[in-house]
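Chain A, query sequence.
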Amino acid sequence: MKVFGESYQAGQIRRLIGRTRQIGGIRQGRFEGGPEDRARFLQFETGTGFLFTVLPDRGMDIASAKYGGASLSWDSPCGEVHPSFYEPQGLGWLRTFFGGLVCTCGLTWMGSPCVDEGIELGLHGRYSHLPCRNLKVGEEWNGNECILWAEGEMRETVVFGVNVLLRRRISTALGSNTLTIEDTVTNEGFESTPHMLLYHINLGFPVVSPNSCLLSPAKQVQPRDEEAADGFERYNRFDDPQSGYKEKVYFHEMPSDRKGMVTVAVVNKGFQNRRGLGVMVRYRQKELPRFIQWKNMGTTTYVCGLEPANALVMGRAHERKHGKLQTLAAGETRQYLVEIGVLPDKAAIAEIERAIGG
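Chain A, predicted structure.
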């Protein structure tokens, strides 16, 4: 294990501290005041300067994340709103969108609002407003590693309708700059159900800046619409914040590596006198064959979204119309894997560039 720039065996480090919390660990609590009042949070800290906040009442999604005091995520002005404020109609989802490092969209629909087989569906589905049940939190030594983890269950269900369960495990370790999300989705109903899932990973300043760029192994990149086509040649570059900026969305066709994984990153080589800072996202492509880039250079909405998904973001009716709507058979289970890591300096950035081929 490496902390504070030095390597230690478990026996060495445990002799030096009174408890794990002296280096890092997990704090549990509840917000007070405002629309997030009484919502639970878990704050992970690894001892490297990497810390992030998990929201059990918002699908165990990840709100703010920082490294060495610098924000990695884009945090919206809405804040970590309690799920009871959810507005499912139309674009109402945006009233409670906290941004954050990870906001999961799904489970039975996501993407643009639409009417699918007579059912009105709002933006991005219900998942990020599902409170966790059976929450478990742990800090445990495994050889020379101290693993920090949290597990829980989120269920999307309705009487006479769907019954889909997502079991999530989020883990990291003392001395680590990487977190792992392992999701298992099961259709516990007795009929087939639509299944759409997207990991809305939102990177903000200072990872995103006019000095930053997107590193992607994409074989092909397509703009979603005319707005995205305007300025398409700069899809992987970023500008100063602009008032009135209209979002641009790009669809990337990604090749996987020999292990079936895809790696992308946003890097700012000019951060802190060229020390550099970046964030990489790695995901298993088999279950997440789509990748969407959300680029918004607006004032206050200055963000780049990296979004592995099992569908595009045109809405469930669009997927069904084009014969691409994924479904879960009764009793079927699928597993998803997403890793997010800090690139703390130019050496780490150079390594990820070589891995991606950027």
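The chain has one domain: 2-356. The radius of gyration is 20 Å.
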